[in-house]
């Protein structure tokens, strides 16, 4: 792996950690708070692509597991990953990878509408599937009941999707990190 790739991975790990400085918003009927960090997950995949985006969130999750207090509310440790929020957090590398994969696949014809769709698929659907399934299993609550509780997250997540998509499209034009499959890569 090139040094440049490692720097991008580290930078987006830090971006997601910095978004953890924004205090979490507790939701009264589900034991998982609303945080700004999924915005970073979407940006990592959309800006870095599948491999680098997924790796940046994998590094983030490993830092959390090691005890680094980089989650919203200055939380960290393996206990968080085996607790109520664990399924959501552990799905972040997969979500960034999925977003990045879709962005790379459609790079040459990428539009804001595509980017919004890809962020919804990875940043909402993948994260919700992982988080809801894990929380349902952990709390022995029916999957549909947990999914219904997650409806509270959708308005904020849609705002994050649009914001991440607009930023990613602008970065694609100004400073593309992902390279087109049809053009030779720059050295």
UniProtKB/TrEMBL annotation:
One of its GO terms (cellular component) is plasma membrane. InterPro entries: BioY (IPR003784). The chain crosses the membrane at residues 7-23, 29-48, 55-74, 86-103, 115-137, 143-169. One of its GO terms (molecular function) is biotin transmembrane transporter activity. Signal peptide: none annotated. The keyword Transmembrane applies. It is found in: Cell membrane. Keywords: Cell membrane, Membrane, Transmembrane, Transmembrane helix, Transport. It is a multi-pass membrane protein. Belongs to the BioY family. This is Biotin transporter. It comes from Bacillus mesophilus. The lineage of its organism: Bacteria, Bacillati, Bacillota, Bacilli, Bacillales.
């Amino acid at each position: 792996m090139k040094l440049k790739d490692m720097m991008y991975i580290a930078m987006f790990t830090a971006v997601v950690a910095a978004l953890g400085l924004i205090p979490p918003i507790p939701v009264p009927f589900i034991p998982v708070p609303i945080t700004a960090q999924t915005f970073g997950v979407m940006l990592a995949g959309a800006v870095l692509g599948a491999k680098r985006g997924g790796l940046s969130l994998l590094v983030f999750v490993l830092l959390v597991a090691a005890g680094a207090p980089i989650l919203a509310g200055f939380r960290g440790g393996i206990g968080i990953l085996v607790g109520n929020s664990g399924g959501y957090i552990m799905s972040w590398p997969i979500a960034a990878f999925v977003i990045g994969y879709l962005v790379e696949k459609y790079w040459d014809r990428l539009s804001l509408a595509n980017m919004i769709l890809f962020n919804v698929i990875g940043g909402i659907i993948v994260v919700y599937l992982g988080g809801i399934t894990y929380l349902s299993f952990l709390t022995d609550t029916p999957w549909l009941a947990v999914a219904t509780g997650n409806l509270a997250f959708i308005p904020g997540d849609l705002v994050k999707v649009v914001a991440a998509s607009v930023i990613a499209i602008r970065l694609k034009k100004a400073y593309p990190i992902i390279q087109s499959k049809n053009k030779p890569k720059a050295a």
